[in-house]
Structure formats: C-alpha cells, structure tokens
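Regression report. Comparing outputs from two consecutive submissions.

Submission 1:
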Amino acid sequence: MAATAHDAVSQAADKKRSSVRALEWTNFFLADVQAGLGPFVAAYLASIGWQAGAVGRALTFGGIVTVVLQTPAGWIVDRATRKRLILVAGSIVLALGAVLFALSGRGSVVYTAQGLIGLAGPFLGPTVAAITMGLVGSKLFDCQFGRNQGFNAGGNLFAAAVIAATSHYLGNRAIFYAVAILVLPTIIATLLIKRDDIDFDLARGGCEDGKAEGGDKAVLLNLAKDRVLLAFLACAFLFHFANAAMLPQLGELLAHGSPKAAAPFMGACIAITQIVMLCTSAYFGKFANQNGRKRILLAGFAVLPFRAALYTIFHAVPALLAVQILDGVANSIFGVVSILVIADRTRGTGRFNLAQGALATAVGLGAALSNTFGGTLMEKAGYRTSFLALGGVACLATLLLFFAVPETVHGATSSPQPAQG
C-alpha cells in the first residue's frame, strides 16, 4: 500500500516533476533557516546571562507577533498568485533577524530580531502547504505533504549538524550568521518551482474543477460554526501549550550549568527529533490517508504527558536525549496530520490557507504562552514542577481530542459546505 501511494504521487506529478522536486528541496532548505531560530535562541540567550523569565518574555514577544499575523497571513496566501515570492521574502526577513541576534544580545536588538522572525514565520507554512495543494491536488495531498515533512525533518537535521559544528569551532554567536547564509539555497530552490505549475484554485482549497465560490463573510461564518474545526483548534492550542516550552527548558537548564555545552546539547536533541521525523513523516501521511486521522493523532497527543514525566525522572544527558524520540513522534504526527484535518474541513471552500492561518494562530498562541508559563514556573517552583504542569496540560489536550473531535476523512463526518454568496 505504501508503494502504491508513493507511485500515485509520482505519476500524478509526472508533468510537474521538476516543480515537485524543487518544492521538496525548498522544504529542506527552509527548515535549515528556521531551525537556527528555534530552541537555539533560548539556549543562546541563557548562555549570555539572560534569566529564564527574561528568555520566556523575549520568546513570547515573537510569539505574539506571530499570533497576530497568522490568520491574516493565511488570508493573504489564499489570494496571492505569486506564492513563490512570499517564500523568498519570508526567508530574507528571517535572515535579517538571525543577523541581528549575531550582532548583539541587548534587549532592544533581541526584541527587534524576534519581531522580524514573528513577522516572517506566519507566511511560510501556509504558503508551502498551498503550493503543495496547487501542484498535486487534494487527492494526493496527504502523501505529498508527508514527503514534504520528511524533507523538512532532513533539513532540520542538517541544520542541527551545521549549527553544532559552528558553535563548537566559531562560538554560539556564529550560529546565526550560518543561518543567514542558508537563505541562499532556500531562495534558489523556491525559484525552481515553476509558477505555471501551481493551480491557483487548488492551492486555496478549491474544488478540483476550480468552481469553489463564496463570499468572505459567508465563508467565515460557515467555518466559525464548524464545531469539529473549533474543537480541533482548541486541541492544537493545548498541544503546543504543553509542548513548546519543554525543549527550551532543557536547553536553559543545561546552559546555566555548562554554557559551552548548551548549543551542542540542543543540536543533539533536535537531531534525534528530526531523525525520527525524517523516518516517520511520510509513513504517517500514508497511514492517515489509508486509516483516518483520529487514531494517529491520539497516539501523537498521548506521548506528551509521558515525555514530561520522564524529564522529571531522568537527569543524565544520554537518558534525556533518548526521551527526544517521543518528541520526534509527537511532532511528526501533529505536523503532518493537523494540516490534513484542516484540508478535510475546508475542502471545496477555497479557504484552506485561511483555516491554516487559524490553526497556526492556535499553535502560536499556545507556544507563546507555554514559554511564559514555563519560564515563570521554573523561576517560582523549579524545573520539576514546570514539566509536570506541562504534562497535565498535555493530558487535557488528549482528552479533548478523544471526546470532541471525530474522524474527519472520507466523509466520516459532515464537512462544511462551500458558502454561497
């Protein structure tokens, strides 16, 4: 079955093969750029003397900018005909943010860099998913998006190796210059995607025949009444509220004890996570295509509480690194299947990217509040209490998913109809 799904993607993409390959490599190189601006920021700031609460507030600021822009970004992506330009511009803005981190650790500079990162981030994920849908169509989207996530994981793994080597030989500050340099291959790969190969109607979640219609107000009202979609957005919020602070907290914990070891440790954590994602993303996409979304999502959500508990039990670095396998499983499942759920609920509405923006808003808000919550709790009650509290939130997310979100694929539940107007 796996081979058949892979062959289906290849056959359907025959006429667009070069664009599909370029899209996959765009995912790879774009991951390189974004990987250096994730948990490494927390470890870097802690290594230069920032306290946990201050690190959390800085990360939260960037998260707030991201949250504010996520849904408008999806709205823009739905209407943009030059989607490649969005990826190019976003990559350049991320590079500028990285350079600012390299230049100074002062509060004003760090917050400006976080603002730039928060500005660019909301456009990247929805644009990649939109281009994917526009290239292969909704029937093959599941499998191709899983392949994209595999390339993304490979890019993160490559970036982690580059960043670990850079920090070892050139210091932590040089990490961000390396990230900026990686923007060049990202832009080249993006421009190799042929603009004419991207079907505009499919890219925004329209019907295969391009006849999806509906006024904005009617569509928004229709989506706002979709209880399944709203429940899933709440699940996504709780998932990332529980998940986002865990890895940065590990980095900060190690940075305060051994600043020089912080970046290599984070590199190893990310490498393990991305190896798992590299090996599983395509499989999870195919599994969700053949068996539905809910079972695999429940598995991904359920590993989070165990991960949080294990962080309080194990203290040796090798054991903590082993726990990152669970991080890879959870993030691989959520990264692939959450977008498939959004595609299920918006098929035929022409507002796929708008709903992606809403999902990203829920994710960004959860992640931003997670960093503030985790950082504050660490200062007040210690790392153990913080991890256990995050694990409790993860339990709540799993229960909400189980009881409030039914299966969404293959007509298992009624999907919202395209709004007319």
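Submission 2:
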Amino acid sequence: MKRSAIALEFIIISLMLFLITTSPSAGQKEPVRPSPRDKCPVCGMFVVKHPDFIAEIIFKDSAYAVFDGAKDMFKYYFNLGKYNPKRKYADIDAIYATDYYRLTFIDGYKAYYVGGSDVYGPMGRELISFGKSSDAEEFKRDHKGKAILQFKDITYDVIKGLD
C-alpha cells in the first residue's frame, strides 16, 4: 500500500510538471476577440473590418489595445507614453499578431514579419506576420518582400520607413 501511494504521488507530480512546462502560453493572457466597436488607438480605424491584419497588446490587468495591423501596433509600442501614458512596458503581458495565411493569432514576440512586399494593409505598406519562418520565406518570394524581421529586429526607423 505504501508503494502505491508513493507511485501515485509521483504520477500526480509528474503530470503537474508536464502540464506547467508544456502550456503554450503559460503566464500570458489569451488574445481577445475584438468587438465591432474596438478602434485602433493609432489611426482610429475599426479593426474587425480587417481580420487579416489584427494585432494586439494585452496588459497584465487584462486591459488591451487592438490594431488594424502590425505597423500600428509597433507605432503604439514604440510610443507607449504618447498613446497610453499610464502604461509602462512592464505592464505588457502579451503581444499577438495575425498569421496572414492561417488567420490565427500568433505570439507577436516570436512572429516573422515580412516588410516591403506588394501586399498592402488597411493603412498602406505593412509588416505581414507569420508563425512559421517557411511561410514568411514563401510569402517574401511570392510577393517581392524585402526583408523578414523578428520582433527584436524591428525599430522605430523600420516602422517610419513604411509610411
């Protein structure tokens, strides 16, 4: 009986550790489904009209900002003090972008963004986001993209160059 109790405890602890370490977005808020009233805080456009391009910043207190494209999301991110002076970067829990091929939300920090392509977003030239590097490569090739960037590579100058 004692052995079976120890084995059961081991199984329960192992299962708990497995669930904690394999959670796809552990510690991150889930993406929100924008309502018809949600506007991009950068340009004022209603975002639900452009599902191919929606990006989001989710804050730790569950507040959020939704955007009509990754370009405006980065403008907001780089100018947080202008667009949301009460927030700090430490308040951000998650960033999401829409995978252009799959139309699903992907982790914006891990996404691959294609710049300089012949595909335009709601506000003109846009960063087109993908969850897989192979999809970004294919899109870049098919749509005359200039570069594939990740979050850490994108600067304010990159964003300004899209306007």
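Expected: both submissions complete independently.
Actual: both completed, but the second showed a warning that disappeared on reload.
Relevant detail on submission 2: The first strand starts at residue 55 and ends at 59.
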